[in-house]
Amino acid sequence: MAAPVNEADIADSAVLAVDPRSEAESKSSSRGKLVLRRFLRNKLAVISLAVIVLFYVLAFTYTWYTPWSYDELDPLSNLLPPDGNHWFGTNQIGGDMFAQTMRGLQKSLTIGLLAALFSTGVASIVGAAAGYFGGWTDRIAMWVVDLLLILPPFLIISILSPAFRGKTWVILVGLIALFQWMITARIVRGMTLTLREREFVKAAKFMGQPSWRIIAKHIVPNMASLLIIDATINVGVAIITETSLSFFGFGVQSPDVSLGTLIASGTDAVRTFPWLFYIPAGFLVVTVLAVNYAGDGLRDALDPSSSRSRRKERKRIAEKTKSPSTTGATA
């Protein structure tokens, strides 16, 4: 069933009716412009996106404007509160908390982004292949999905993590992504079962295009909105998962740091030296909230039929229609 079109979308797309470009280019550009306009109307989502970008810049450039490194110690400045020399204070062994927090933010953001991209990519491949080919491909894929859904992810990762202790953190990304793709794969499979019966897919088959080309060129692009939203949501989930694992000692290992290890080390001193706990915890909360709000805004921009988007559009249209009447009454 086609999504309902609201008045704002009609107004936004009216300027595109006179565009002399080809139909394909017009549809692509108009879609992008409409999504961008809807997203920019959501001020909270725009602010959240700006916060995410700011955190990324801070996390990867902190060595440019601070003299301290995350693994450098100042033995004469143990447990100092924030001051001009150590902006976020120091920890029990004289480590600079600003440098360590930025390093932890860098690690958590990187792991969250890579795990989200990997899990969304696996979900799109497995789900589309299962729905398109059917038969034994579908049965085996869904059997693997059902098996992974009944396994407790946190317990499995905590059991496997000691075997990879001291090795690259990319393994942790793979373990987190391993348990994030199953629900999306089921949704992609269901959408593929519908898309494979569409005329453009049958035409591609008739023209002799190989199956994987049809999946990559015709099936997956028609689910781009779902996959983009899923990847955005998975970033926040992956950050929380990594932080939880690192908090209990199963994630990022010393001498490296993440927000989870910093929060864990500051838990015992939360009352006496609160900056050790509240600063990394505050960055974690703000990061996850920003990712979630940006994801909500992206969902509303890509799906104008969502309830939140409809409420905002009705409110905006009501304000526009109310203003002329008020002006006329005043005159």
H and E order: HHHHHHHHHHHHHH
Assembly classification: single chain
What percent of residues adopt helix (DSSP H or I)?
A: 55-70%
Head-to-tail CA distance between termini: 46 Å
Mean pLDDT: 81
Percentage of residues in DSSP E strands: under 5%
Radius of gyration: 25 Å
What is the 3D form? globular
- Helix/strand-derived category reads mainly alpha
Number of helices: 14
- Main beta-sheet annotation: none
Describe the structure.
- The longest helix is centred in the middle third of the chain and has 37 residues, at 97-133.
- Residues 1-25 have low confidence and may be disordered.
- This protein has 14 helices and no strands.
- Helix 2 (23-41) packs across helix 13 (275-302) and helix 3 packs across helix 13 (275-302).
- 70% of the residues lie in helices and 0% in strands.
- It is mainly alpha-helical.
Please give a handful of descriptors for the protein shown:
14 helices; 331 residues; mainly alpha
What's the arrangement of secondary structure elements?
Elements: H1 7-14, H2 23-41, H3 43-61, H4 97-133, H5 135-150, H6 153-160, H7 170-178, H8 182-195, H9 199-206, H10 211-219, H11 224-247, H12 259-266, H13 275-302, H14 307-330
Helix pairs in contact: 2-13, 3-4, 3-13, 4-5, 4-7, 4-8, 4-10, 4-11, 4-12, 4-13, 5-8, 9-10, 11-12, 11-13, 12-13
Condensed summary:
It contains 14 helices and no strands.
